[in-house]
């Protein structure tokens, strides 16, 4: 399975932890496999405790997995079966931890220079100085080189941590929630910066976050994890528009999920019988086995893919509804519409005058309606 287009490959990774107080064993990483394309921004996304940090720490060599294999640049760095476990400092990686790992007793320059003085590859004094100053310039910190690192703001510390990691010239940059200590505004500014640094330096980056907005905005590929397992791997738009499970649909963005059963299925669409009526779903992943009438599923539709209208509407997936709540958001109304007993969240045009109690038609765009098998 090794191929040189991948900077990292993981297969069948498992990591168990034993709780100290009662000896109970938990599976933090459960049969995780993925391949990271070279030069890409690859994100591990999931709720707290889903195993993303443990996966990253196994990649860094800071945690020893119980089973599985890891290779970097086609070279095995870990194999449980072969008892191979290359030390962290011998792996072609650099890590930016959540807390940045900046030393308060050192000046900015010395923090950045550390890997060039003590790391895998060291340089003569003049060359170190040249490289560090050039990197500080790149991340906008050249005027701070002589300051104590404690005098930097949170965003500047984050840039310093990134500069130090990039000075190691890693094949793979591991980033563990590096923006989580910053306020919301700075976070959104720095995520754009981080992404542009990644593209400028062309360094393969593996990024851990529980923030779906961050993952969608920054990534080439997202791995969604839940309880140690992979739920889905795909591009941001694949994950958002064609979620593979209820978990993914619910965790990323906002989704209406309506249970139902298969009414009929073909190559291009699945018709689902639900409490709303028969809903045509033109998006679905390959079912575990050919779907049969009566098989349970969930219909997933995002609010922006439901049209709310007071005019007559044509085509499939039209249902009579009653508005129960409306919220004016300036560019649109966010409404809850009841179709029988089922409530659907939808966005209505800002110019449409809708009030609680109004009778409307909702149209679930079949092209964006997803049949989920789990
Ligand atoms: P977070 O976003 O909160 O950091 P995470 O998705 O990164 O969560 P992990 O830190 O990988 O999750 O933890 C996965 C599971 O393994 C959790 O249930 C956690 O409690 C457990 N775990 C992690 N490290 C240890 C450890 N050293 N000893 C015991 N259990 C651990």
TrEMBL record:
One Pfam family it belongs to: TOBE_2
GO function term, MF aspect, one: ATP binding
In terms of superkingdom, the source organism counts as: Bacteria
The record's keywords, sorted A to Z, are: ATP-binding, Nucleotide-binding, Transport
Q: Which InterPro entries match?
A: AAA+_ATPase, ABC_SmlMolc_Importer, ABC_transporter-like_ATP-bd, ABC_transporter-like_CS, Mo/tungstate-bd_C_term_dom, NA-bd_OB-fold, P-loop_NTPase, Transp-assoc_OB_typ2
Domain (ABC transporter): residue spans on this chain: 8-252
Query: What is the protein's given name?
Result: ABC transporter ATP-binding protein
- Organism whose genome encodes this protein: Amycolatopsis acididurans
